[in-house]
Amino acid sequence: MIPRMSSYAVTWQHGDHEAHSGRLELVPRGLVFEGVGATGVESETVDIGDLREVRVARSVADRISGRQTLVLERCTGEPIRIASIVHPGIISELAEHLASQLGEEHSMSRAVVVVPLREGAGRRAAELLHKGPPFDPEEVGLERHHVFLTDQEAVFLFEADDPGAAQRLAADGSLWSAAAVWKDLVAGPPRLADDAYSWLRSHVPDDVSFASTPGPGDSDGGDLF
User: pTM here?
Assistant: First the structure.
């Protein structure tokens, strides 16, 4: 769900430091905090690439003044906690939106290479594939490697965590030189397939919950407004 607004009145806090109040604005690759500081209006940008986890606080210790609170765990630096000033329900929408962005940021790079085969070469290609690739997939930085085989072609799928890594690997001539044993089976030059369409189920980290927080009197406390 994309939040209905792009700007929110919030309170935010870095670690155990003093909390600040002001405005949070969503931007294409993250969010911007803006408030009045000692030197006037101050702003801070948090890039989505600097986040490793987004979660809704479950305990009183994680909440700001007992309010529903969103916790941004950062790759570097202290976590940032955010609570809405006016609309407490917006925290769940922000959590969903940022978790979706985070999933897209961490999605794998992918390359698909199509290799045409000579007539009757399918059986020999299957035998070679059964022995595994002529390289160590882990050493070259792959997370996943598949090869699909038809009577006319072999389709190689490379996936890596590092953006662009799979494409660079697929274009690496030394990789294909290592597969010289295939030269008598190949009917033409390999082709890099275009990624014309893809679909990915949105992944929300386990610690993210969009359920309402416990009410006043519950063991964890509740939202106080």
Answer: 0.47
